[in-house]
Design goal:
The complex is a heterodimer of chains A (about 220) and B (about 140). Chain A is α+β, with helices and mostly antiparallel strands and about 220 residues long. Chain A has helices spanning about 10-50, 55-85, 95-105, 110-115, 135-150, 190-195, and strands at about 90-95, 115-120, 130, 155-165, 165-175, 200-205, 210-215. In chain A, strand 6 and strand 7 form a beta hairpin. Chain B has about 140 residues and is an alpha/beta fold. Helices cover about 55% and strands about 15% of the residues of chain B. Chain B has helices spanning about 10-25, 35-45, 60-70, 85-95, 105-140, 140-145, and strands at about 5-10, 30, 50-55, 75-80, 100. Chain B has a 5-stranded parallel β-sheet with strand order 2-1-3-4-5, sandwiched between helices. In chain B, strand 4, helix 4 and strand 5 (about 100) form a beta-alpha-beta unit. Classes of the chains: A alpha+beta (about 220), B alpha/beta (about 140). The interface between A and B is medium-sized, with 24 and 21 residues.
């Protein structure tokens, strides 16, 4: 299916692999923190065995730290699960804001490695789109990756979705580096196939430092 | 004298817990949350061992290792890594790191590597002192220069 739609199978797999590797790295970090805090509890237990008084408040703090990391790992795993299920159906309906939020969370490690923040301006109403979710996630990642590189001194990429009669518009803004970027869109070879497959259109407003991605509300129509 | 250890990792909670456990085991521990700060601390203090995370924002672990080795070549470095960055840790060893450990790591493994690193540094320093003494014995006038 992927090859038929002009999308390199290898690049789709690379995207899936990149996200999975990042998620496993994040889980590993939370496990390392849990490991050290569990070790601290063990150390305190050994000290108590030797007759040293242990402050219960200290134990409570460590337990709380472990719980925070368990919640963090749980949220990472839930995101990975949502992402993994995006290939279940060729086309389905999702709230665009939920999908953008998922992509921001999946990209958070890449953002923090570059010292960049991604902010979603989320409207109160859901914006439903019926499309190929995996392709859309792949396309959004290509744009986020590009946007994080050209965000300028503020180091914040703003993201928002909007709706028209037949389309959903996704704006990546505050891209100060768009004027001076060697290319003003993400890798053409990478995104062309995805844009075609999603019946999408790309426009850039270099003066405003903005990239706009226009997608049909329903790819089947 | 206590072994002087610098723990460098961008995960603050990890750094806090690990340093507390090392302090309990009688190490002299300093912490750093990024490569740039670690390099500054290495400039101003003579650490025996640096425990260095590979994947950090800004100056990454391998770059930090390079800077540390330029400033204090005898300071031993142990790289810490998640599975995703094992290759970088191996590259780090090519650049002079003593060893690497996978996160999450067994405390006893880490302790034994820190002690091994401390002994190796002490041996290097002793060899340098011996060589200087040998220089003085073989040409005593060099001391007067």
């Amino acid at each position: 299916m992927i090859a038929e739609q002009g999308i390199e199978y290898e690049s789709a797999l690379r995207f899936f692999g990149k996200m999975s590797a990042s998620v496993s790295h994040e889980i590993n970090n939370t496990l390392a923190i849990i490991n050290e805090n569990a070790g601290l509890l063990e150390d305190f237990a050994l000290m108590a065995d030797k007759g040293r008084a242990i402050d219960p408040a200290r134990l409570k703090t460590i337990a709380e730290k472990i719980l925070i990391q368990i919640h963090r790992a749980d949220s990472i795993i839930k995101n990975m699960n949502k992402f993994a299920h995006s290939v279940d159906e060729r086309v389905r309906s999702v709230d665009m804001n939920d999908l953008l939020q998922l992509m921001i969370e999946l990209s958070s490690r890449f953002a923090s490695m570059r010292g960049v923040t991604i902010e979603l301006k989320r409207p109160a109403e859901p914006l439903f789109i019926t499309t190929n979710i995996f392709f859309l996630e792949n396309l959004l990642w290509q744009f986020l990756d590009f946007a994080m590189d050209i965000t300028g001194q503020e180091k914040t990429v703003f993201l928002n979705a909007d709706i028209t009669e037949n389309h959903i518009l996704i704006r990546f803004s505050q891209l100060e580096g768009l004027k001076s970027a060697p290319r003003n869109t993400p890798s053409v070879t990478m995104t062309e196939g995805l844009l075609d497959a999603l019946k999408g259109k790309l426009t850039t407003n270099i003066e405003a430092g903005m990239i706009i991605l226009t997608l049909p509300k329903d790819i089947n129509r | 004298m206590k072994t002087r250890v610098l723990v460098v990792d961008d995960e603050e909670e990890f750094v806090e817990a690990l340093s507390e456990r090392l302090i309990m085991r009688d190490y002299d521990v300093t912490t750093s949350l990024n490569g740039e700060d670690a390099v500054e601390k290495v400039k101003s203090y003579n650490f025996d061992v640096v425990i260095l995370d590979v994947a950090m924002p800004g100056m990454n672990g391998v770059e930090t290792l390079g800077e540390i080795k330029k400033i204090k070549p005898l300071t031993e470095v142990i790289m810490l890594t998640g599975n995703a960055t094992v290759e970088s840790a191996i590259n780090g060893m090519k650049l002079g790191a003593l060893d690497f450990l996978l996160k999450p790591c067994e405390t006893e493994d880490l302790i034994s590597k820190i002690d091994m690193a401390y002994n190796r540094k002490a041996e290097h320093e002793q060899r340098i002192r011996d060589a200087k003494v040998q220089d003085i014995i073989s040409s005593p006038r060099s001391v007067l220069k």
